[in-house]
Specification:
It contains seven helices and eight strands, in the order E-E-E-H-E-H-H-H-H-E-H-E-H-E-E. The radius of gyration is 18 Å and the shape is globular. The chain is 32% helix and 24% strand. It has a single domain, classed as P-loop containing nucleotide triphosphate hydrolases (Rossmann fold, 3-Layer(aba) Sandwich). A six-stranded mixed sheet has the order 4-5-6-3-7-8, sandwiched between helices. It has a two-stranded antiparallel ribbon with strand order 1-2. The chain has 231 residues and is of the alpha/beta class. It binds adenosine-5'-triphosphate. Residues 25-26, 28, 30, 48, 50-56 line the site of adenosine-5'-triphosphate. This is Phosphonates import ATP-binding protein PhnC 1. Keywords: ATP-binding, Nucleotide-binding. It comes from Kushneria pakistanensis.
Amino acid sequence: MLETATVEPGTPAMLAGFDHARLGHDHHIVFPDLTLRISQGERIALLGRSGVGKSTLLDALRAQLGDQGAWCPQANALVPVLSAYHNIYMGRLAHFSRWQNLINLLRPNRACWQEISALAETLGLDGLLRRQVDQLSGGQQQRVAIARALYQKRPVFIGDEPVASVDPRQGARLLELINERHHTCVVALHQRELALAHFDRIIGLDDGRIIIDAPAHELTPNDLDVLYAPD
Ligand SMILES: Nc1ncnc2c1ncn2[C@@H]1O[C@H](COP(=O)(O)OP(=O)(O)OP(=O)(O)O)[C@@H](O)[C@H]1O
C-alpha cells in the first residue's frame, strides 16, 4: 500500500513507502501496522535484533522498487558452484539476451570481463574471479555479493547485512564504496558504529514496530542500546 501524500515543492521525491501496512509471511505477521516513507537520496540503516523483521521489510521494499533496486542479499545467496565472475555477471542477466548469457557461461564476454575485473579490483577481489565461490572465504563471498549488486547499476542499493562477515575497517571501506555509487541506500546492519558513521537516517525496529527513526547525527551508540536490550 503506497502513501499518496502531497509532496511539497523542494521535498525529495518519495521512492517507496507504507501506509498502515501489514507485512509478514503467510500466517506470520511481522509488522501489523507499518507506516514509513523513503525518499530519493536518503541513506538509511535498518537496525534491530535478529528476527525483528529487517529482511521482511527489505523484501517489501524490493517488491515496491522493482528494477530500481540493486539487491545485495546475505552472502549465502550466491551460486556456490559458479565462479566469482559468473556470480557477479548474474547481476545483469536480464540485461543480456539468453544467447549472450549462455555463451558467456562458457567463454566470458571480453567487455563484461573487463568491467567486472575493474569492479572486483575496487573490492579487493583481484585474482579471484575464476575461483568457484564455495572456495572463497566468507568475507570474499560477501564482497562478491556486493559486487553483483553494484554491477546491476540500479539507482537504489538494498542490502541485507552486506558487511556482516568482514572486519569493521573493511566494512567501513565497503560501505563507502556502496555510498559512492548509490545516492539512495537502505541497508540492514548489526554494527551500530558503522550505521551511525555511514548513513544519514537510522531506523530501529523492535516488536513489530519502528521504535527509532532519527537522523544519524542526532544519535549516539548508547541511544541504540534499546534495540538490543534483552527481553
Ligand atoms: N519465509 C518465512 N515464513 C514465515 N516466517 C518467516 C519467514 N521468514 C522469516 N520469518 C519470520 O519473520 C520474522 C522476521 O524475520 P526476518 O528474517 O525479517 O528478521 P531479521 O531481522 O532480518 O533477522 P536476521 O537479523 O536474523 O537476518 C522472524 O520471526 C522470522 O522467524
